Amino acid sequence: MIYPVVAYGDPILRKVARDFSEEELKDVKTLAADMFETMEGASGVGLAGPQIGIAKRIFVIDSNLMIDEESEGEEKGLRSAFINAKIIEEFGEEFGFDEGCLSIPGINGEVVRKESIKIKYLDEELNEKEEVFTGMTARVIQHEYDHIEGKLFTDYLSPIKKRLIKSKLNNITKGKANHSYRMRFPKK
């Protein structure tokens, strides 16, 4: 099932998401599959529960699209669900990258993040994992993790950049956004 993507301005995007209970975990595999379908239908590389109107600690990523196949780096992409995730540590050099978000269509901005993370989570098969990720995969995870913490990439932008995009953000809250996928805009 493809969900509409929740647009900027909806209060759910600012809520800290709750963990899934043991009972709720029974249906999480279907939810993760639906989230992958929604993300892929919107040509995204990540999608978090709050972005589909569910204030739960789940996000899915596919960082393969962010990794240049011709680059000489060792980084491999990852397609995975992260359930009840907790970042344990962010470390390494900081680097900036132009980020965007399915909930904020048409707006991008440079965000500086640490190059590596250590994270504990359940995958869609409910296997408990604790892993270290680096590079673009770490960045995608950090962006989606921010969603379950009630943060958006625009929170990291410079004051000047925030002023420059203010009218575009206001338009999104009013339902005026250029997008090619189903969206749910804040109620007036």
From TrEMBL:
GO terms for molecular function, please? metal ion binding; peptide deformylase activity
Q: What is this protein called?
A: Peptide deformylase
Q: Name one GO biological process term.
A: translation
Q: Which residues form the active site?
A: 144
**EC number(s) recorded for this UniProt protein:** 3.5.1.88
Reaction catalyzed: N-terminal N-formyl-L-methionyl-[peptide] + H2O = N-terminal L-methionyl-[peptide] + formate
Any idea what job this protein has? Removes the formyl group from the N-terminal Met of newly synthesized proteins. Requires at least a dipeptide for an efficient rate of reaction. N-terminal L-methionine is a prerequisite for activity but the enzyme has broad specificity at other positions.
Q: What gene is this protein translated from?
A: def
Which residues are listed for Fe cation binding in this entry?
A: 101, 143, 147
